[in-house]
Amino acid sequence: METQTNKAILLLSCPDTLGVVARISHFIFERRGNIINLEQHVDTEDKMFFMRIEWDLKDFTIPTEDLNEAFAPLGKEFKADWTIQLINSSCKPKVAIFVSKYSHCLLDLIWRQQTGELNCDFSVIISNHAELEPIAKNYNLDFRLFSINKENKLEQEQKEIALLKEYKIDLIVLARYMQVLTDNFIAEFPHRIINIHHSFLPAFIGSNPYKQAQDRGVKIIGATSHYATADLDEGPIIQQDITRISHSDSLNDLICKGRDLERTVLAKAVKLHLESKILVYNHKTIIFES
Amino acid sequence: METQTNKAILLLSCPDTLGVVARISHFIFERRGNIINLEQHVDTEDKMFFMRIEWDLKDFTIPTEDLNEAFAPLGKEFKADWTIQLINSSCKPKVAIFVSKYSHCLLDLIWRQQTGELNCDFSVIISNHAELEPIAKNYNLDFRLFSINKENKLEQEQKEIALLKEYKIDLIVLARYMQVLTDNFIAEFPHRIINIHHSFLPAFIGSNPYKQAQDRGVKIIGATSHYATADLDEGPIIQQDITRISHSDSLNDLICKGRDLERTVLAKAVKLHLESKILVYNHKTIIFES
Amino acid sequence: METQTNKAILLLSCPDTLGVVARISHFIFERRGNIINLEQHVDTEDKMFFMRIEWDLKDFTIPTEDLNEAFAPLGKEFKADWTIQLINSSCKPKVAIFVSKYSHCLLDLIWRQQTGELNCDFSVIISNHAELEPIAKNYNLDFRLFSINKENKLEQEQKEIALLKEYKIDLIVLARYMQVLTDNFIAEFPHRIINIHHSFLPAFIGSNPYKQAQDRGVKIIGATSHYATADLDEGPIIQQDITRISHSDSLNDLICKGRDLERTVLAKAVKLHLESKILVYNHKTIIFES
Amino acid sequence: METQTNKAILLLSCPDTLGVVARISHFIFERRGNIINLEQHVDTEDKMFFMRIEWDLKDFTIPTEDLNEAFAPLGKEFKADWTIQLINSSCKPKVAIFVSKYSHCLLDLIWRQQTGELNCDFSVIISNHAELEPIAKNYNLDFRLFSINKENKLEQEQKEIALLKEYKIDLIVLARYMQVLTDNFIAEFPHRIINIHHSFLPAFIGSNPYKQAQDRGVKIIGATSHYATADLDEGPIIQQDITRISHSDSLNDLICKGRDLERTVLAKAVKLHLESKILVYNHKTIIFES
Questions:
Q1: Is D183 known to be catalytic?
Q2: CA atoms within 13 A on the CB side of C263
Q3: What residues contact residue C114 under an 8 Å CB cut-off, 6+ apart?
Q4: Which residue in chain A has the smallest CA separation from D59?
Q5: Can you give the pTM of this predicted structure?
């Protein structure tokens, strides 16, 4: 009964220097790893180097449990920040989805997971309202209600954190969750909480962005997925998309058109994260997408 | 030697009430005007009605010089704001273009005017720098240099205003003009100054929007054309467009990609204005575009 | 217990002549109808006039059952093709959805109907396969299986037609239905069958358009919704949309990206049809969308 | 008086096998080349590997004139097709532009070259009509007129080929050149002729694509840049873009909207080619664009 591990993905950032690609690709080649994908980026202003390498572990000569240790000397030599993610067909990333009352992002995530587009397990749906429980039930997903008010917020968050740790959650998706998380909660899951904001950030930060958009008379609206950070709506942006509107669109039309954006922009960010294609540096994201 | 007048365009806004379309279209029909285009919009929240009617004057029984007087009673009855624009193939709108050092918007406007896409005359190019004079010369356009500094600004603007009035300018286009106009100047030409801002407003108001965009790590940049008002970058938005960027785009890449947006977004706004397709209401635009 | 009728929508096409707008808007005004929306279009080449007028029936002096008769003389005078649609909040259009094995368009249509974006009833789901029956059951929709093979096709279609007539179906939506309908079937429902083709028509007509797209090496793929006609993939186009692809997209990636297009492009066409915003003339559509 | 060579770009395709990235990046690293950019792609179906590596030659230990010879053994070992392009700030690629009567693509290419966006020299403008000669004169570009008719076509093409070889032309751009080149001409410059077709290929192959688009009633039009091959409009596609149209757009509107697409889609293809970012394999392009 072996655990079948298929691929490894290295995400690395380090000061730009000679030979990083050569040395690291050679490290993999010598151990009989077949590179499936390599993408790199150089920030010429900050003189930083970033790389994502994905390789096949079939004939790889190092056991997966020793991989981190084996790579450590090279990482140290290049003064690199790095992680190695193992992609294992029998052990999928565990995702928690936070929702309130809007169903569109939740339904879309579930549909994409069922088609195989999102390679993960939805371990639990957490909500501050009961409205979406039937959807969770319908797809046999664990639904947990945590009502939030000013008095119980910290306490409820502690229970949520405990539950998320119990589930060994790898990623939290805020699928139109209408509560602001405390800094304390966010600090527990750095760059592991993805939020969808229903505007083209940094335009229309805060609440009611569609109303703000209508009042300003813009001709295009957008949606933005980003990692949640302590500064609200200021986290590293992962994906954005837009759609055209006109004077004849009512506020309700904006909300309808916006929903179509929100669900695809959020799903794309989740997919990129699950495939280890996002590197955060300096409050911005590098997306390895080719 | 008659002046040939082809079409009339009525732009009208009034409180929404029964019979506006019927009564006004009947007014035109009775006088043998052939309606070429009618577009209307109702703001259900503010209970306001907006309409653009374009009709052929070939068999129209009212002389064009009496048209305003003839329509006035109907306009008064509906408590309407209205203007009637005469489109005359032998007398084109006169446009002044303000530039500084960037040539792309200027070149694009000239090219579109030459192909017939923009139906106007470029009476004068006004600049605070001499760099683009050769382009003006090359196309036989009057080029006037008004160097601006803190001390002479008001004085120079007065001279510009005098020149614009002498030329009977109908529209001023700020084609990447890198000087802030005074409130006094703007007040002279209400809703007759079109500016291009090189960001997706209201994001990145002010200077260096591409640098701001890069610093924030957005995945999409934009451009916005709008009527200039006393509040900088707050005027009624006419047209917006966007393009995708990634982490691998340098600041110079953003500037290059942005230029392509700026020239088309500005040209579109100028075209809409010249065709009397823009109505301003409540700091927003209604664009009659069908 | 009166049936509450809210609005009437006139769709009309006729040879372009003087006074159509004036006369028809006056017809409505005299009978105390409040015009909510009027949109017209002139085909200057064919000298044809097209119009959509939507008006409030609250104070309208003609009973809805007499409306067609009352308008008939005016329609005759202008040699017009016309229909008047009554929009009645208590009696929604009845829609049948045809599916095979793909669920995305079906799920999306149901979701939009539940949010109120699509104002209709889904009377029946018809399929040639059993796979999607659980979805229909889950939403309490009538699901009917009609297995199709070469021998029974005509016979099965006759049963489907009988069922659709029994249900008084107003619109048939082919939501990735993988069977070609016979000309006979299509002739029963002229301009009342909407299909989604998973390519940017007229490129890649026929089967496996994503494979065709990959083989040709295009950089953009698309989807097209259109009315079904006897000529396959040649019906009047209602809506199209596209998305970018690259050499790194596998056939499966195209299928994934295409699904997102298919569902929105189909839903948009259904919405336009339900709101009587489509006029078919000369194998093309005029979309009244402002 | 040394010739300053800054960078080398290797474009390589070979059967997918272990160690290509490692071995080639090591080859560069050992010779003190600093990799600026590496992008690769694996065609898993055809089991082919493709790579573009760009490296700094400042401290590179092999003289540029020996580079091809030095790399040859490695290329042979991997059974690769490969080319190495030297990017030299003092010696730009030489480009010939073919035009007929439309100026927009020509003007746009010249403007982009002047801003530095296109790093090349325009050695000669070749045309079968005299209309655009003033533009060439205005920018001090060599303009050569080759009138073409059925009788003289082959003969004139021979003179053009001689001229292009005399100029040592690296790239030919067909900027709305309205003559079909013979197979013989095309065979002289394999994958070095870029054409712009004013439709979204493979839709509307052949002449008058905008008329074809209007007749079919599509809701989106496009433009396609591609390498010219013997099969007209069938060459490897480099870049495509689209814009929305509606029933209210006249044929002239399509032509206007299309021009904006044509110039940007052609310029983008020229830029990609000049930066050695295009690999042709199996009648399709791999675009290294990150």
A1: no
A2: 21
A3: none
A4: A18
A5: 0.95
